[in-house]
Specification:
mainly beta, 7-stranded mixed beta sheet, 58% strand
């Protein structure tokens, strides 16, 4: 997915960026070293990663919206996507626009084919290299 960087905080070893997408604004850690830090106002094609294990009914819930979205909240990030599939090990595929995000989810029967809200403290983004 293409994003545009609107703010960069590189005051620590981890680079935190605020960005815009066609689905809203978000905040994420830029995966890479300071040598390869992003530039303000530039556009990048990225992949998303949520490494935390999510619990159904807690960090991931059925959405009232049937559209993709991302927003920064007081508690972190809320991302709305479509749950495309879940394997036996609890690894799920979430569609967010043209991106697929793999998630580890515990608990409950997951509503495949439905839009879900994910509330998380941390998202990482990786620049696609192609």
């Amino acid at each position: 997915m293409e994003i545009q960087i609107i703010k960069i905080d590189d005051s620590t070893e981890d680079i935190l960026v605020n960005f815009t997408t066609p689905y809203g604004e978000g905040r994420a850690f830029w995966n890479g070293t300071k040598k390869y830090k992003p530039e303000l106002n530039e556009k990048y094609k990225v992949e998303y990663d949520i490494s935390d294990t999510l619990e159904w009914g807690k960090e991931i819930t059925l959405s009232k919206n049937n559209d993709f979205s991302i927003e920064t909240t007081e508690d972190g990030i809320r991302l709305t996507g479509k749950l495309e599939g879940v394997d036996r090990d609890g690894i799920a595929e979430l569609r967010f626009g043209e991106s697929i995000i793999q998630l580890e989810i515990e608990g409950g029967k997951l509503p495949t084919g439905k839009f879900v809200d994910i509330n998380t403290n941390e998202i990482e983004i990786y620049e696609k290299a192609y």
